[in-house]
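tool_call: predict_structure(chain=1)
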Amino acid sequence: MPPRPPPATPQPSTSFLTDVSRLLGSFRWAFMPLGLLALVAVGVHAAADTLDDRLVALVDRADAAFDGLVGRYDVTAPMVEWVSLELRTRIARILALTWELAADLVLALPALGYREATTAAVKPAEAWRAALEGPKEKPSWRALWRRCLRQPTPMRWLRPLATAAVVVAGACTVAKLMQGTVYLSWRELMGDQISDWVARGMALGALVGVLATLGWRAVLRNLQHADAACAQARGGRQAFTRGLLGCAVVVPLALAAVLDATPLLSFLR
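tool_result:
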């Protein structure tokens, strides 16, 4: 009589939170690109908000030059009244909105192409190592950095740097929203000083959490997109001129994000 096979060991039961976490983790392919898109869009919007006054001043100067030109002659003198203050403000807002949408098209849309490794599941603590090694179908940080040094182009350098600037601005926007919400909600219950400390701590936690989970991935994705676009160019000259228009759109917004939309020290004072 053949021996009986040993009884199968029962699988250890998992908790409800573990099952929910695994279920939500199976949808990372959908919400991670959307999260990167949202973070970049929030950062671009925060940077564009700081340019409203500058654009109004620029439109005022253009209108003053136009008035000085047409006001010299009696025939064209009535044209001075064509552009009112309300119209100038509306023109500045349209320019800011157009600029913001163009920057979203350049920086935010590539985030939808973000894909993670489809091999074995990676633990959260090993996410940085997995990104450093990189999946087989996409280059790693090391390979991208090597090509940036050996084959430098404006697109390879400016797009990731601009993405990093608007990502930090977007994370600061989320942190400020967290700080204001917590402070106003807890001020009557815990007092001004304690509410301020708790709000600052939670704002710093939100800032670090957003950058650690989404920020570096957005920079990586734009670096991959810029590297792939430059690699498709024929010849070094075409690779150097690839994406110059997009860089011209996003670099001023990146500078505005760094100078006016990234109040990092405000969370510590």
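agent: The radius of gyration is 26 Å. Proceeding to next step.
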